[in-house]
Amino acid sequence: MSTPRANAPRAGTPQTNAPQANAPRANAPRSLGDLQHSIEGCRRCPLAETRTNIVFGVGNPQAEVMFIGEAPGEKEDLGAEPFIGAAGQYLNSLLLLAGLRREEIYIANVLKCRPPGNRDPRPEEIEACTPYLREQVRAIAPPILVTLGRFATQFILKTDRGITNLRGQVHLTGPFSVLPIFHPAAAIYDRSKEPVMEADFRLLGRLLTTRRSEQRKRGEQAGSAERGERGEQAGSAERAGRGERGEQAGEGPANAPLTGPSKRAEGELGGAPAQ
Ligand code: SF4
């Protein structure tokens, strides 16, 4: 996994490659499978020369939360899967604080190939590789993005501000709620960051709880409106049926009390406002 980045935030993160979270979806996004297939053998940047594997991303394609890291580390480069080293183990334990399991989330990196020696990503590498990330985000369309570390955060939020200033708050961009968090590797190397990491994952848990509760309420309201409409239609049909039955009954001498039902039926079936 990438080592923590101690350098100051790099200014000039390519703006043209930042994800257009609120861009209109003129074309349907490619499926993750198609996208992964299209990346095979990519040589858009010099990292192709030194990688062992392209590390595309892994997880639930309908994830509510997508985590975005920086770049594959050594283990990930060998295993072709993101976050499988020590930082990944730590991430798995932090997920539990948010009430999440690893298989529920999707996880990918800004760069799909490992920078030699886990050095910082270079602007030209970010520029070359991030169209893939943008397509992944479009394909999954998660309501919540968690950016792990400076590079992912600055790319997603199109900012040069540092992660220390941005973490601990939910940032809204287009349709996404973005929660920047330190890279787990940073907390492995600097244990003083652990309480902050834990607080941020608890915040993620609260964000999920709030979102799910709002969704439930909206679902209940929609269900109630739908039931009301069905009830109205059923009532209308029943009243119409009664009218028809009444009309039929009215034809028989034994049903004289139902005089005038045809009038009522006519009114209801003719679009008279329901009372
Ligand atoms: S880092 Fe991205 S752009 Fe560069 S070779 Fe790998 S997949 Fe291609």
Describe the structure.
With 275 residues, the chain is α/β, with parallel strands linked by helices. The chain has 2 domains: 30-189, Uracil-DNA Glycosylase, subunit E; 223-269. 47% of the residues lie in helices and 9% in strands. The protein has 9 helices and 6 strands. The model is unreliable at 1-25 and 241-275 (pLDDT under 50). Bound molecules: iron/sulfur cluster. Residues 39, 42-45, 47-48, 54, 111-113, 125, 128-129 line the site of iron/sulfur cluster. Iron/sulfur cluster is lined by residues 39, 42-45, 47-48, 54, 111-113, 125, 128-129.
Structure, briefly:
The chain has helices spanning 32-39, 74-79, 86-97, 123-140, 150-157, 163-166, 184-189, 194-251, 261-269, and strands at residues 58-59, 65-69, 106-109, 144-148, 171-173, 176-181.
CATH class of the largest domain: Alpha Beta
User: How can the largest sheet be summarized?
Assistant: 6 strands, mixed
Low-confidence stretches: 1-25, 241-275
Number of domains: 2
Number of E-type strands = 6
Terminal Cα span = 68 Å
Q: Compute the average pLDDT.
A: 81
Order of helices and strands: HEEHHEHEHHEEHHH
Helix/strand/pairing category: alpha/beta
- CATH homologous superfamily designation of the largest domain: Uracil-DNA glycosylase-like domain
* CATH fold label of the largest domain: Uracil-DNA Glycosylase, subunit E
Radius of gyration: 28 Å
Shape: globular
Bound molecules: iron/sulfur cluster
The percent range for strand residues is: 5-15%
